[in-house]
Specification:
It comes from Nippostrongylus brasiliensis (Rat hookworm). InterPro entries: NFRKB. This is JmjC domain-containing protein. The protein folds into two domains: 3-104, no CATH class; 109-163. 57% of the residues lie in helices and 6% in strands. It is elongated and about 95 Å long. It is mostly helical and 185 residues long. The chain has helices spanning 3-9, 28-32, 34-40, 43-48, 51-57, 67-77, 89-98, 106-150, 157-163, and strands spanning 14-19, 22-27. A hairpin with a 2-residue loop joins strand 1 (14-19) and strand 2 (22-27).
């Protein structure tokens, strides 16, 4: 029987979860209640598992040489302390479960959000450049209207244009050119 059929047949409310590519059905109460989650995910539950399952789970723990180190690692992993620098590991996992971090549809949603952000950024940049161009055209139009109104109508067009042309700040007729390849010239 496939996962979708089990999902539809489940009497209790369940949540689909993706752990490392494996789709699981978890009871929703386990996902939404931290108290229930802590009662189920504990060191007692770990010790009630088969030896094969515990061996598989030891891959997720730091390197362990003896039983005392294993107990210490489990007590650190399943601690109830909330004053840890990076947060309580069990609380963080339950928080991520509750907020849909392990939802099978999450990668698709992340791609959609990224694409939406790209579109929004493109619209913002286009709007910015259109406003900038609009301001530039309006300011140049005002200057043109001002110049046309002040200009003497009897002047020829070429003389009017040469009167108002800008002078270069980079080049002057008296400027000495230094040849960088042949300094003697």
């Amino acid at each position: 029987m496939d996962l979708e059929a089990l999902y539809k047949e489940a009497d209790a409310e369940v949540t689909r979860v993706n752990f490392s590519g494996d789709l699981l059905l978890l009871p929703s109460i386990l996902v939404h209640s931290e108290y229930v989650f802590r009662q189920v995910v504990s060191s007692e539950t770990y010790y009630s598992l088969s030896e094969e399952a515990r061996t598989h789970l030891r891959h997720f723990l730091p390197p362990i040489k003896n039983v005392a180190e294993e107990q210490h690692a489990l007590s650190c992993a399943f601690t109830k302390r909330t004053d840890l620098i990076h947060g309580n590991p069990i609380s963080r996992v339950q928080f991520k479960l509750k907020n849909g971090w392990f939802n099978p549809d999450r990668p698709c949603q992340q791609n959609q959000i990224r694409d939406n952000n790209k579109v929004l950024y493109d619209h913002y940049i286009r709007f910015y450049h259109m406003n900038l161009l609009n301001k530039l055209v309006k300011s140049r139009h005002l200057l043109f209207v001002k110049d046309v109104s002040e200009e003497d109508c009897n002047l020829p067009i070429t003389k009017g244009l040469t009167l108002h042309t800008a002078k270069s700040t980079l080049f002057t007729p008296n400027m000495k050119v230094f040849h960088l390849v042949f300094p003697g010239k």
